[in-house]
Sequence to fold (326 residues):
Amino acid sequence: MRKLLTTFKPLHPIAAAVIIAAAGLIGLSAKASADDTLRVGKAVPEAFSFTPLDIGIQTGIFKKYGLDIQETAFAGDAKLQQAMASDSIDIGLGSGPAMAFIVKGAPVKAIATMAGPPLLLAIVVRPDGAKAVADLKGKKVSVSTPGSLTYFLVSETSRDQGWGPNGIDIEPMGAMPGQIAALKRGDIDGIIMDVGNAFNLENKGEGRILVRFTQMKDFIIHVIYATDKDIASKPDDLSKFLKGWFETIAYMRAHKDETVKIAGPVMGKDADVTNRTYDEVMPMFSADGKFSAKALGVISRSWIQLGMLKEPPDLKTLYTEQFLPK
Fold:
């Protein structure tokens, strides 16, 4: 042992530095790989409602909670729910009315209220179109898909006018570009769309906002969903995601300029439209994610009115608040 000690030669300073640097890189790599991956899907790609995901990613808020977010966008709630059912994503950002999919067997639960009143949406007509809501009787208004949030809101508009649920001719037409083209051609008389697209059409002189839904105080326009599989196997990750989400909402409220800068490119809108959208839509976001019994009751009644369900479900089986920040 004495001989070995006397023959040991200290490392050259450069070699020692290389080893230390390599050890540091290994440490960084281990730290990076320690982040938990969550696959998160948006019901649609461009709506301001879903930009908190992008803002939380770009500001590093989710990363702070040890989460690596993989983002995907879909063409509506049905596609989002299909992706969750096939285990393609872990968390879905969708509509409140889409909770009906759970009653029909979708392997998911709502884990937080994203937003309440439907401030995101508006019915838009051509510049020379209907002058008042009363002018929409018997007119064609396009929506995304049957039984969707947009379908429900147009049906409610008809009901509020005393025409029953079918007083407006509701036309499911899928993607927004096709709906806008149909409006310009005169194939339809109006579209229900997010206010970002509505403001954009107004700025171009190609449309005019006719109806807003600011009067609907008791409502849940958006919900955060998690798969049953992840609820069972990744409870800590779901809790961390919701902490990051609601910290992002607080950040957005306190940092308008930074929010607009990130949200604009995601929405594909200029600064003017994004600023207006921020002012209109931010008030609808929930600060704590809790579910309102009254708002859930409104959504439950909508399922019956739309013929999606025959009787009201047990609402307590559709959501959980166990992952909400304490």
User: Anything to note?
Assistant: Confidence is low (pLDDT under 50) at residues 1-11, 13-23, 25-33.
